[in-house]
Each structure stands twice: as structure tokens, then as C-alpha cells.
């Protein structure tokens, strides 16, 4: 039985440090995620030459699930990879983290997804993603019996970019509702809200139990510059909403009431994965019995720790577990 079953893109992340000029020369929108095709990915990698790079299994929901697993909870993950070196790397890395991969997502001929994460000196991350076969993730790849007894079903908003994947989220949400599984969805990125709003709306249907987003995504969703108005709109979709505010902390909304959880000091060197660990830590705290604002505070603490390191994840499970001991509320 899983505490949390996640659904998301199977992406191998490659991180490099670049200067602002590289982004402008390549016509890349800083701070956002841009979907690219395979030729474009090859061109970008060629332009980067032999610069030092770090590779890990990634994808937004995968990062969240690894955080949950490392914090002591039982997790499963549904995804799709190809029978290539990239896909094998992803599966092996996730298995090392202790995550149970949905075995119905079998490798097939094609190429697996990868994401080029470009980090500038201000710690901002800019992502270029080639989804590969991950975009073909569909309802046929889900073994619904595997998560029928889970506490939460968690899906990343990035799945809205693929009609088949968005349909898989809707099917999991509906199946979970029949067995009492709560659905949590992240909005993932402002570009998802702007470009795939209709698909995100369909993924959430008549409402979900939790929504995770950052301030920019919330404002974009509500088409406003006032966070209070954005929260009013989001809480009509979900009774529990978490809006991250960067160094200023986050807002936890439950039963119509918004409470701010303070942020924690950090010297940010890489913001990649901050929202992912926030969602994982928040769900972990909620599973442990914490009230929403207390869960948000723990999630803020974990995100502050992550951004002081390079990479979308901490090095190992011990580093995640250590966060529990370090956190004092």
C-alpha cells in the first residue's frame, strides 16, 4: 500500500551553469520551462560544448515522490520511458531511491525524456524539456489497483501538455475518488497555466483536495496582480491550497482561511526543485498529522535547505531525514 502514488513525466535532468548571455543568444525565456523538440535539444547541448554537467533522474512529480520516500513514506510512481540508455538511467536511479515504479509503464522503442536545466548566477533555473516518449503516458499505462488504497494521488501540472497524459490524470483522479484517495495537483509552471489552462482545468475537474503553486502561477491562474484574489479563486477549486512565496515563505489555505508560514534564511545557489521538495515535505507533514500551516512551515524549511545546494534533490535519504531533526518550527 502506498502513502502517495505519483504520476508524472520520466525525465533525466542535466544541469549546467550558464551566463545570461547564453540565454539571450539562444532566445531562451529565463526562469520558465520551454518544451523543445529533439533537434532543438541536440543544438542546445552542442552549443554548451563540454561544460561540466550533473545528471539525475528528474521530473517535477518524481522529485516530489523521492522527497516523500526519503522522508519515510511508501511511494509509487507511474511514468513512461523508452528502451534507451536515458530511460534505463531513470529507472535505476528511481529504484535506488526506493520508489516503486509502476511496472505497466514498460520501456518501448523511442527516446526517453530529458530536461536541460540552465542555472544563472542569481540561482534562477531555466528549463528546456524534450518529453520524448513520456508525452505518450496514457491511461493504458496505469495499474489502478496499485494505488487504490493510497492516501494521496499526486500529479504534476506539466502533464497538461499532453492530451493522453492529462486524460490519465483525470482517470486516476476519478478512480481515486471511488476508493477515498485524495488528489493533489501542482500547477508546475507559469507557462503551463498560460498555454494549457483548459487542460489543467479538465485535470482538476469539479475540484481536487490539494493544489500546490507558486505566487506567479497563482496570479496567472486568476489573471490578477492581487494574491488575495488569486487565493479566492483557487480555494473554489480545492479546500486546501498552498502558494509558495520564495524567501517570504508560503500561504496555506484551508477551510477558507489563509495563513502565512514564514520563510527561512538561505543562500540560494540553485532554485531547481524548490517547489517539488515543498510539495513532498508538505504532504509528508500532513501524513504525519501536522496542520496545514505547520506543514507549510516544514515545507518552507526543506525548500530553503534545497536551494542552498546545486541540484533538484538532496544527495541521499539521510539528508532528507536530517531535515526533520533540524526543523524546530
Q: What does this protein structure show overall?
A:
The protein has 329 residues and is an alpha/beta fold. The chain has one domain: 3-Layer(aba) Sandwich (UDP-N-acetylmuramoyl-L-alanine:D-glutamate ligase), CATH 3.40.1190.20. The chain has helices spanning 20-25, 38-48, 60-70, 85-96, 163-179, 190-195, 197-204, 215-222, 227-234, 274-287, 292-307, 317-326; strands spanning 4-7, 11-17, 33-35, 54-58, 75-78, 100-101, 113-119, 125-130, 152-155, 182-186, 210-214, 240-244, 250-254, 257-261. The strands form two sheets. Strands 6-5-1-9-10-11-12-13-14 form a nine-stranded mixed β-sheet. The protein has a five-stranded mixed β-sheet with strand order 3-8-7-2-4. Strand 7 (113-119) and strand 8 form a beta hairpin. Helix 3 (60-70) packs across helix 10. The radius of gyration is 18 Å and the shape is globular.
Summary?
This protein is α/β, with parallel strands linked by helices and 329 residues long. 49% of the residues are buried. The mean pLDDT is 94.
Amino acid at each position: 500500500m502506498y502513502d502517495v502514488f505519483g504520476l508524472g513525466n520520466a525525465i533525466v535532468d542535466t544541469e549546467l551553469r550558464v551566463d545570461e548571455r547564453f540565454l539571450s543568444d539562444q532566445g531562451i525565456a529565463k526562469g520558465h520551462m520551454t518544451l523543445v523538440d529533439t533537434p532543438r535539444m541536440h543544438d542546445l547541448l552542442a552549443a554548451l560544448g563540454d561544460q561540466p554537467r550533473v545528471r539525475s533522474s528528474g521530473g517535477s512529480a518524481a522529485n516530489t515522490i523521492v522527497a516523500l520516500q526519503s522522508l519515510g513514506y511508501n511511494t509509487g510512481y507511474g511514468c513512461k520511458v523508452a528502451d534507451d540508455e536515458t530511460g534505463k538511467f531513470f529507472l535505476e536511479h528511481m529504484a535506488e531511491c526506493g520508489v516503486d515504479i509502476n511496472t505497466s509503464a514498460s520501456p518501448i522503442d523511442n527516446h526517453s525524456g530529458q530536461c536541460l536545466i540552465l542555472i544563472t548566477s542569481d540561482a534562477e533555473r531555466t528549463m528546456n524539456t524534450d518529453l520524448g516518449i513520456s508525452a505518450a503516458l496514457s491511461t493504458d499505462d496505469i495499474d489502478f489497483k496499485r494505488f487504490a488504497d493510497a492516501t494521496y494521488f499526486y500529479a504534476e501540472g506539466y502533464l497538461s501538455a499532453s492530451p493522453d497524459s492529462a486524460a490519465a490524470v483525470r482517470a486516476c483522479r476519478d478512480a481515486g475518488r471511488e476508493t477515498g484517495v485524495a488528489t493533489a495537483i501542482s500547477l508546475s509552471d507559469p507557462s503551463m497555466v498560460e498555454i494549457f489552462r483548459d487542460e489543467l482545468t479538465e485535470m482538476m475537474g469539479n475540484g481536487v483536495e490539494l493544489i500546490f503553486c507558486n505566487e506567479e502561477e497563482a496570479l496567472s491562474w486568476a489573471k490578477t496582480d492581487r494574491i488575495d484574489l488569486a487565493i479566492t479563486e483557487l480555494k473554489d477549486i480545492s479546500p486546501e491550497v498552498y502558494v509558495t512565496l520564495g524567501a517570504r515563505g508560503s500561504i496555506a489555505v484551508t477551510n477558507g482561511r489563509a495563513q502565512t508560514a514564514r520563510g527561512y534564511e538561505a543562500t540560494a545557489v540553485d532554485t531547481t526543485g524548490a517547489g517539488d521538495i515543498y510539495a513532498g515535505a508538505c504532504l509528508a507533514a500532513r501524513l504525519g498529522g501536522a496542520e496545514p500551516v505547520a506543514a507549510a512551515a516544514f515545507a518552507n524549511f526543506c525548500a530553503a535547505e534545497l536551494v542552498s545546494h546545486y541540484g533538484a534533490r538532496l544527495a541521499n535519504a539521510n539528508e532528507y531525514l536530517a531535515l526533520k531533526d533540524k526543523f524546530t518550527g
